[in-house]
Design brief:
With about 850 residues, the chain is α+β, with helices and mostly antiparallel strands. Helix content is about 60%, strand content about 5%. The strands form 4 sheets. Strands 1, 2, 9, 10 and 11 form a 5-stranded antiparallel beta sheet that branches. A hairpin with a 6-residue loop joins strand 5 and strand 6.
Length: about 850
């Protein structure tokens, strides 16, 4: 199982057991809201001291009190009516009213968006506007808008039908005119006694033959209409089959799509003219037209009547167009009026709804004259809350003021950190793992520095860092604009972490200067290289023939190492050892933080049987390795550190020989190895027995019945304590301690190895940057062709942005995140608290909840 899965699954086991530890210290802390004198609380290092308050509010001033408390936004109300359904609560009717008004506002917003209108900038809700007035106003506006929309839809449908009717009159009229012209030509040919040429339109019977059979002639009927072009072939086929071919169909496609009266969408259509014989055929054709969505219109056979109909329809279309335009103008003015006050109404309705939601969480007394509220608030906000209660009493002309009192409880308070726009994104990174327990040491303070630094170790290139810095400064300069806009998911996440990216870019420039890499190109920024050629022949031979002729390069890697044969061995050794040093330092910081947690909560057991053996074990092995690395750097020794660490376990008594770095090294190694072995049972065995003894002493007298005069809350607390006493299981505590010990011992090895990702990611970033520079940019430059050079520059830019500035940034970010969540926070951070969610109008979302 990986360390991250062990740590995350183990957090749930820790909660129940660690809540039993240091119980007395936590109760004192919850009652008094302070810390131990030697460790004063800070704004970010520990969460704000909280207390549970009770407010008794007269009914007549309840609404105004909730409104003023919502303006302050520093109290989180507890739901005292959890057993009641939403419909059984006192203010269910008012919430229903607010919900109905919110529905009307959403309808207005939808209509404005369809019409292309936008609401004005948010304004503060005016105090002189009452909810009743808004309710009446919204009802009238909704009724008027619905009526306008219905009339407009009806007129638009009539307009579209008339447009189709005019097109049918024009197209079908052309059919009849063509047929009449053809008939006249045939009559002329018959009159001249010349046999006409046979064609598709030549009648099968001559006039003489038709006159002999006058009694069998049948009068033909016809229907005209429009059918969607996509259905025209199927329409013709079904007509032919249904009537057994006893119809004559004529179709013509319209040049432009027309608006369908039924759907209101533009559809390409064909004009059709169907000739039939008999009522039975007519009924079949009508049913087929209905099935295919074909719109039929009346059509006169007489040409003069057709022209008259066209004139009448054109006049009606013109009148309807004028009426529709006037209606749209009136609707636009109405929506513009709504848009000017939409944000104000929406804010007021959401405020009122949140107020009544809050009032529904309060319990009402038997006399129904006052409401009782309970909630968590920061201690520093006490005066502000009391001032708000006094103002509400005065402004509501209440005869009785609200009563404010602090309750003492053993319940764990919520966690609240006062952050600003700079620190909020760093705190969000920590909270994504788990919200800190009340007044637990907050890793967010150190994350502000360590997170961008670990990112920069993997992303070290001051050219890429400058690119990130420019992009981040753009987001910061556009902060006011983007903070009021709705951005996409990725853009919103990037904008929210703009200050994290700012520090990431600055640290990347710093580490890039240490690595001496600018898009993988080294520069002699601080002084010339310390290495010079022994003679003229060595200028092309990289490091062959180079000798140290100047002072050591003052800052970072000497540029002479880049491109040399020993570049990779040198940089790999440097970055690997640097990763181990950084990792051991950060893990030690995490263990030290567990000490301050135990000291703050008054938990001496954790100090003596967790902090001390963990420090001994980690530093006895990997702290000693870090010391060897530093000594080897300082002395320039050629000792093999792998050999030293391996044989420290396998053959601790053997002589070190050439691998000895300092005097008495073997003795020190034996002592450290012995202490590390002792630290394992030191972590495992004493703590469960001591916790059991402490627990028995704490709950020794709980079997006695409390006195009759005691407060009810005390009795409830006693009941919970006795319940905890029944649930205490020594085997569970011992198994948990065993898992915790195994996790730490194995984690000390795996977590140290995990920090080698700093070396691996840094190497990958450097090599990718080198490949893009040498195999794209320099290769294109070598062709001496301007077109190839331009293509090479474009490919280099896209590769740098897409791979190094986007993918590599995301990769380094995720690896830094893992190092903080698992390797660092796992040493001390429980993260089983819950966030402080105050009742605040500033936190109201745009959407109705």
């Amino acid at each position: 199982m990986s360390p991250i899965s062990i740590s995350l699954s183990d957090r749930h086991r820790r909660r129940s057991i660690n809540n039993r530890e240091g119980g007395i210290g936590r109760r004192q802390m919850a009652d008094h809201g302070g810390g131990v004198g030697c460790c004063p609380p800070m704004d970010l290092f520990r969460s704000e001291p909280m207390h549970l308050v009770q407010i008794i509010i007269p009914v007549e001033s309840a609404h105004l009190t909730a409104s003023y408390l919502g303006d302050i936004g520093l109290i989180q109300f507890k739901d005292l009516n959890a057993e009641k359904s939403p419909f059984q609560r006192t203010y269910a009717g008012q919430i229903k009213r607010c919900g109905e008004m919110a529905r009307k506002l959403r309808y207005f917003k939808d209509q404005m968006s369809k019409a292309g209108f936008t609401s004005s900038v948010k304004t503060e809700a005016k105090g002189d506007i009452s909810l009743d007035d808004i309710e009446v106003k919204l009802g009238d506006l909704e009724a008027e808008l619905i009526e306008i929309n219905a009339n407009s839809e009806k007129l638009q449908r009539g307009y579209n039908e008339l447009v189709e009717y005019r097109l049918i009159l024009q197209k079908a009229g052309e059919f009849f005119k063509a047929a009449q012209t053809s008939a006249l030509a045939q009559h002329r040919e018959a009159a001249s006694d010349q046999p006409p040429e046979e064609s598709l339109e030549t009648p099968l019977l001559t006039d003489q033959e038709s006159k002999t059979d006058q009694g069998k002639q049948v009068k033909l009927g016809f229907l005209a209409g429009l059918v969607p072009k996509a259905k025209a072939m199927a329409f013709e086929r079904i007509l032919f089959r249904a009537t057994r071919g006893n119809v004559f169909l004529k179709q013509a496609a319209l040049e432009e799509a027309v608006v369908d009266p039924s759907s209101g969408e533009k559809v390409e259509k064909n004009v059709f003219l169907v000739f039939f014989s008999g009522e039975r055929a007519k009924s079949k054709i009508l049913k087929i037209c209905e099935a295919f969505g074909a719109n039929r219109y009346p059509f006169a056979e007489d040409v003069s009547k057709q022209e008259q109909s066209i004139t009448e329809v054109s006049g009606k279309i013109s009148e309807l167009k004028t009426t529709i335009d006037a209606g749209l103008l009136h609707r636009g003015n109405l929506l513009q009026t709504i848009g000017e006050q939409y944000e104000q109404w929406s804010l007021l309705v959401r405020r009122e709804k949140s107020i009544y939601h809050t009032l529904n969480m309060l319990s009402i007394d038997v006399t129904k004259k006052c409401l009782v509220a309970e909630g968590w608030s920061p201690i520093y906000a006490t005066e502000q809350i009391q001032d708000a209660l006094e103002r509400a009493t005065t402004d509501s002309n209440s005869q009785v003021g609200a009563i404010f009192q602090v309750l003492h409880t053993k319940e764990l308070p919520p966690t609240f950190f006062r952050t600003n726009k700079f620190t909020d994104s760093f705190q969000t990174i920590v909270d994504a793992y788990g919200v800190a327990k009340y007044q637990e040491a907050n890793p967010g303070v150190y994350t502000i520095v360590t997170f961008p630094f670990l990112f920069a170790v993997m992303f070290g290139d001051w050219g890429h860092g400058i690119c990130l810095l420019i992009a981040t400064l753009f987001l910061i300069f556009k902060e006011k604009k983007y903070s009021t806009q709705k951005l996409g998911d990725i853009m919103e996440m990037t904008f929210g972490g703009r200050y994290v990216i700012l520090l990431m870019s600055l640290f990347s420039i710093y580490t890039g200067l240490i690595y001496n890499e600018f898009f993988s190109v080294p520069f002699e920024l601080f002084s010339p290289s310390a290495y010079v050629c022994r003679d003229a022949a060595c200028s092309e031979a990289t490091t062959i023939g180079l000798i140290k002729g100047r002072d050591t390069y003052p800052f970072g890697v000497d540029p002479a190492w880049h491109g040399s044969r020993s570049e990779l061995p040198f940089l790999n050794s440097l970055k690997m050892k640097m990763s181990i040093l950084i990792g051991v330092a950060q893990m030690n910081l995490g263990i030290v933080m567990s000490f301050f947690n135990a000291l703050y909560f008054g938990n001496a057991v954790n100090i003596w049987f967790q902090f001390i053996p963990q420090m001994i074990f980690l530093n006895g092995l990997f702290g000693y390795l870090s010391l060897l690395i530093i000594v080897k750097w300082c002395t320039g020794s050629k000792a093999d550190l792998y050999h030293i660490m391996i044989y420290m376990f396998l053959s601790p008594t053997d002589d070190l020989g050439e691998n000895q770095l300092f005097a008495n090294q073997k003795t020190i190694q034996l002592v450290l190895l012995l202490l590390s072995l002792i630290a394992v049972p030191w972590m495992l065995l004493p703590r469960p027995f001591i916790l059991k003894a402490q627990h028995n002493r704490t709950h020794q007298g709980q079997s006695y019945t409390p006195l009759e005069g005691e407060d009810e809350s005390v009795q409830v607390e006693t009941h919970h304590d006795s319940h905890d006493h029944e649930e205490f299981e020594f085997s569970e505590v011992f198994v948990h301690q065993l898992i915790h010990t195994i996790e730490f011992v194995l984690g000390a090895v795996s977590n140290t190895a995990s920090y080698l990702r700093l070396w691996a990611l840094s190497l990958a970033h450097s090599e990718l940057s080198t490949v893009f520079y040498e195999k794209v940019l320099l290769l294109a430059w070598g062709y001496n062709n301007i077109i190839i050079l331009i293509i090479g520059i474009i490919v280099f830019i896209f590769a740098t942005v897409g791979v190094l500035l986007v993918m590599e940034t995301l990769s380094a970010f995720l690896h830094a995140l893992r190092l903080h969540w698992v390797e660092f926070q796992n040493k001390f951070y429980e993260g089983d608290g819950y966030k402080f969610h105050p009742f605040s109008f500033a936190l109201l979302g745009d959407e109705d909840e």
